[in-house]
Write a structure and sequence with these properties.
Blueprint lengths: L4 H31 L4 H17 L1 H8 L1 H5 L5 H29 L9 H4 L2 H11 L16 E6 L10 E3 L3 E5 L6 E2 L10 E6 L2 E6 L6 E3 L2 E2 L4 E3 L4 E4 L2 E7 L23 E2 L8 E6 L6 E3 L4 E5 L6 E2 L10 E6 L2 E6 L6 E3 L2 E2 L4 E2 L5 E4 L2 E6 L4 H5 L4 E2 H4 L18 H5 L17 E3 L2 E3 L23
Parallel strand pairs: 3-4, 15-16
Antiparallel strand pairs: 1-2, 1-11, 3-5, 5-6, 6-9, 7-8, 7-10, 10-11, 12-24, 13-14, 13-23, 15-17, 17-18, 18-21, 19-20, 19-22, 22-23, 25-26
Helix pairs in contact: 1-2, 1-3, 1-5, 2-5
């Protein structure tokens, strides 16, 4: 205790430990904020531990200035040992250990996604539908050969790193693992964008991402066609778009999720006379029918839906019917009460067959396809302009006034009429729409037996 160097070491240990704890807390805060390391909870906990160590160093500083100065060598060895251990642990070991561990082990912080708040309802619906779109598994070329790529560009616009290969008709890009191309970049949103091959034309759609997507230094706000040599900016990287091989013409089927976007013409897979229809068989709008003219037909209470159902059990955007190359698919848009096809709740797109019953809330709609299912998938493509000619002087392009027989409502179109049924006087009314006889307009497919009355729904 009477050594001349010992008091100096106690002073350095006490005040140095206090300074070390404060500097460690400041360094942690700077590292977490500047380099975006660790979660907010981890960084806050580490800083609090360092500040607690700084507060604990007040005790050895007080001891050094009071008891050690006045009593010196007369102090008990156990007391001096306790203070030295206190200084070592709380002044140096703990704050330096926390700082070193945080810098070495803390992972990059991924901020909470705010892009979903900025997305419009149309883009939100397009993103959800794209995730479940079967086009993600449809190869353009044989043997799953790539049809295009996005080559990474450096500052000198030379290739650097592995390119992003496009093989399918639809490719989703984002940070989540359910995307087709996963980019581990903090500036990439969870579901950032899609690239779709539509009529031999590559189209890029940004899902309202937080940092956006740029094509040739122009921010993308709607579906934009991609051309050879275009520069695409995703997150912190720049890519050069190039086509590897021409796409097979058999894949020129429109699967756009935003009908009519960017002024592009929509295409129909069927002429209006044989387009499938949805007929309400249960609910307040019973008897109403809608012809599926658009590539994507929305169902819900919202005014943006092609089929509006004023029912409290139906969500604002409840479900969608999507036209694909092999038929029509029903999908749920995360509605409150779910969507059912033939009393089975659907969580993935479900192909509709003639006579299927689609239930949204308490409203039941019958899918009526005048063509047989195989003929429906093989139908030719025509211009959308021809399909949108109004009927009977009305201007609506989806809801029609074509006469609908009672048998078409309660029975699929491919079922032969019951011999005992009276088809000459089947009439009914629904507002301004007449339900008259039109049995000759139905084309019969394979015969099968269906009850002659509507089955009540749960």
């Amino acid at each position: 205790m009477d050594g001349t160097a010992f008091p100096a070491w106690v002073d350095v240990g006490s005040f140095g430990g206090l300074t070390c704890a404060v500097v460690a807390a400041s360094g942690l805060a700077i590292w977490a904020l500047v380099f975006h390391r660790g979660t907010p909870r981890q960084s806050a906990l580490a800083i609090l531990v360092c500040l607690g160590s700084a507060a604990a160093m007040i005790f050895p500083v007080w001891w050094d200035q009071t008891r050690f100065v006045f009593f010196g060598a007369s102090l008990d060895v156990a007391e001096v040992t306790l203070v030295l251990a206190w200084i070592t642990i709380f002044g140096w070991t703990l704050p330096l250990g926390i700082l070193t561990s945080y810098v070495a082990l803390a992972e990059p912080h991924k901020p909470e996604e705010r892009a979903a708040v900025k997305r419009s309802p149309q883009l939100e619906a397009a993103m959800r539908l794209a995730i479940a779109d079967p086009a993600r598994y449809d190869s353009i070329n044989k043997d799953d050969a790539p049809w295009a790529q996005l080559a990474i560009l450096g500052d000198d616009e030379t290739g650097g790193g592995r390119p992003l290969i496009l093989r399918k008709r639809l490719t989703l890009i984002g940070r989540e693992v359910d995307n087709d191309i996963v980019l581990n970049d903090e500036r990439i949103s969870r579901h950032h964008a899609e690239i779709r091959l539509d009529h031999r034309l590559a189209v890029l759609l940004d899902f309202g991402s937080m940092n956006g997507t740029l094509i040739n230094h122009q921010r993308v706000s709607q579906p934009v066609p991609l051309k050879r040599g275009d520069i695409v900016e995703l997150g912190a990287r720049r890519y050069l778009f190039s086509v590897i091989d021409a796409a097979d013409g058999s894949h020129s089927v429109d699967t756009a999720k935003v009908p009519g976007a960017n002024g592009a013409k929509r295409r129909q897979t069927l002429p209006p006379s044989v387009l499938p229809t949805l007929v309400v068989v249960q609910g307040e709008a019973a008897g109403s029918r809608w012809t599926l003219l658009d590539p994507v037909t929305g169902i819900g209470r919202d005014s943006s839906c092609q089929i509006q159902l004023p029912d409290a059990t139906v969500s604002r955007r409840h479900a969608q019917i999507v036209r694909q190359s092999d038929g029509y698919y029903a999908s749920d848009l995360e509605s409150n009460n779910g969507t059912h096809v033939n009393d089975e709740e659907i969580t993935t797109p479900r192909r509709l067959l003639n006579g299927d019953l689609v239930q949204v809330g308490t409203v039941a709609l019958r899918f009526v396809a005048p063509l047989a299912d195989d003929d429906l998938a093989r139908a030719t493509t025509i211009d959308d302009d021809n399909a949108h000619q109004p009927s009977n002087g009305h201007s609506s392009s989806s809801q029609t006034t074509v006469p609908l027989t009672h048998e078409m409502v309660i029975r699929p179109a491919d079922m032969p009429p019951d011999a005992s049924a009276d088809t000459d006087t089947a009439t009914g009314t629904d507002g301004d729409r007449d339900l008259g006889e039109d049995d000759g307009a139905m084309q019969h497919g394979d015969e099968h037996t269906v009850d002659g009355e509507t089955t009540p729904l749960d």
